[in-house]
Design goal:
The protein has seven helices and five strands; from the N terminus they run αααββαααβαββ. The protein is mostly helical.
Amino acid sequence: MSAPLTPPPPPHEHSPHDAWQPPSAGHVAAASRKAGPAGYGGGHGWYGQDGPAMRTEVREAAVAAVAVALGGVLLGVLWWWLAPRVPLVGDVVNGGWAVYLKESEGEQSVGVDGTFSLLALGFGAVSALAVFLARRRGGVPLVVGLAVGGLLGSLLAWRIGVWLGPSQDVIAQARSVGKGVTFDAPLKLGAKGALLAWPFAALVLHLGLTALFGPRDPDHFPPPEPHVPQGPYGAAGS
């Protein structure tokens, strides 16, 4: 005589010894509230980066770029004041005026570029330190704003120095001072690469200061849960 067959449990019922239990409705609701809108971390993920926080960083970067660029006015004045003068002399050749370097072996032209480069490096260091002290958190927009401001400041300093320096019309100057009389050459930047000294110095120093003294990001990973040995039918002691 065969034993009666026991019908299987309904699909929605689970044995208390099952290894996995479906989350309750309360846990699902709590997880949804923690995840935030569209499951993007409630302001800690993409939603927060594209929201007001990112707009604030961009606005601060724009302010930093303008403030740094305005420093180019002072750089231009200092370059015009400290750069060595290049002596020229005029002469009449075949009924026309010609202008020559008074000292063909002189290094004044190199000194003009070197003065601009050294001053730009100093301004880059000062601007990087000022921006870091004003906003220690850093950020990509701030670094971009610092670089753009340094480049604009260099361009502004170059044009202001040329404007404050001697006239660009050397023939007119030679005629005004007379034949054989020494006068100063126009202030010009022979090596255009010197315009990158300011943004380069600012970027290097700012990144170094941020790496050494900037705030550290907190550890967002939870501590590991203690290991509970599992038996063949679930947790030990169940």
